[in-house]
Design goal:
Number of helices: 13
Oligomer: single chain
Radius of gyration: 21 Å
Distance between the termini: 37 Å
Helix content: 25-40%
Strand content: 5-15%
Order of helices and strands: EHEHEHEHEHHEHEHEHEHEHEHEH
């Protein structure tokens, strides 16, 4: 019996790769090197499905190239702005993602960045590692207290809700948010979250702003919106790099018009601007949002579940609809 051919574009935990190999005629990437556009085009021509991820830029031109065999893009990750969804749907290619399984892990990292930025933990660690720390001092690396402050969330989906829960119940923070759609009052009460009519209203009040909005639609925070933040406020981004105007953020951090930032994502990953890397008032992590053994395994198995459903003639449970 013919088994569908799948290409897994990056390395995944051993358990996931074993189960993919058992289910399909599978090709893996043992070097774990991002595929070039030429390699992606070849993969689209010889595979029935790509188990792809954020490092695979699948734009309209690439997807339209012929010959083309691929029928499914099973994305390993919740975000899919690296895929031209309209082009994929127009070509009859199904797209799926892996929601839910990375919610808690990414929320934990958002709180990690918030605490690191507020307490200047990155600066402190660099000081100790450099051998330049000469002991405790009353005014050394004074940061910002987190408990009781106001957290503003841009987007209140699964991850935003998980962050709200941690902040309100764990740190007694007031949580305010702006979301594209209304949410049930009882759910908001349980989260301790208060809706705001606009993003600008969130920015004007928040001591910490955490982004949980989809990418691929241009910057949500540009220079004008960054200027609406308090000079004492911090920006946290675990969403996508393109939701922030990176040049405007660098300028705001350099001039001190905001106090600092904690970033896990960047506009042109893996390239991080030298000007950003030179700043002490920003914490920089290498896209670690879902980086736990448990979560990455769950993500891979969820992508496999979508592929198995598709090739069995069933609706993939996490099919992504056209916008």
């Amino acid at each position: 019996m013919h088994r569908p051919r799948v290409i897994v574009t990056r390395r995944w935990p051993d358990e996931v790769e074993r189960r993919i190999a058992a289910a399909f005629d599978a090709e893996f990437n043992p070097d774990d090197r991002p595929l070039t556009p030429t390699e992606l085009r070849a993969a689209l021509a010889r595979a029935d499905a790509l188990l792809c991820t954020v490092t695979d830029r699948l734009d309209a031109e690439l997807l339209a190239a012929t010959p083309r065999r691929v029928r499914l893009l099973a994305n390993i990750g919740v975000g899919f702005n690296h895929i031209d969804l309209g082009a994929a749907h127009g070509l009859g290619i199904t797209v799926s993602n892996t929601p839910d399984v990375l919610t808690d892990c990414t929320a934990d990292l958002a709180i990690t960045l918030l605490l690191m930025a507020a307490r200047r933990a990155g600066e402190g660690e660099r000081l100790v590692r450099s051998g330049a720390w000469h002991g405790w001092a009353p005014t050394q690396l004074l940061g910002t207290c987190v408990a009781g402050k106001t957290l503003g969330l841009i987007g209140l989906g699964r991850i935003g809700k998980a962050v709200a829960r941690r902040a309100h119940h764990g740190f007694r923070m007031r949580v305010i948010f702006h979301n594209r759609s209304a949410l049930p009052p009882d759910e908001l009460a349980a989260l301790g979250a208060e809706p705001c009519a606009s993003i600008d209203a969130v920015l004007a009040q928040a001591d910490f702003v955490s982004l949980h909005c989809p990418g691929g639609q241009g910057p949500v925070l540009d220079a004008a919106r960054l200027a609406r933040m308090k000079p004492s406020a911090f920006l946290i981004n675990t969403a996508r790099g393109d939701v922030v105007d990176e040049a405007a953020l660098i300028d705001a951090l350099q001039r001190g018009t905001i106090a600092g930032a904690g970033l896990d994502v960047y506009a042109a990953e893996p390239d991080v601007p030298a000007a950003l890397r030179a700043l002490d008032n920003v914490v920089l992590l290498p896209h670690l949002g879902s980086a736990t053994r448990e979560t990455r395994t769950a993500m891979g198995l969820r992508a496999l579940e979508n592929a198995e459903a598709f090739f069995a003639g069933r609706e993939p449970p996490d099919r992504v609809s056209a916008r």
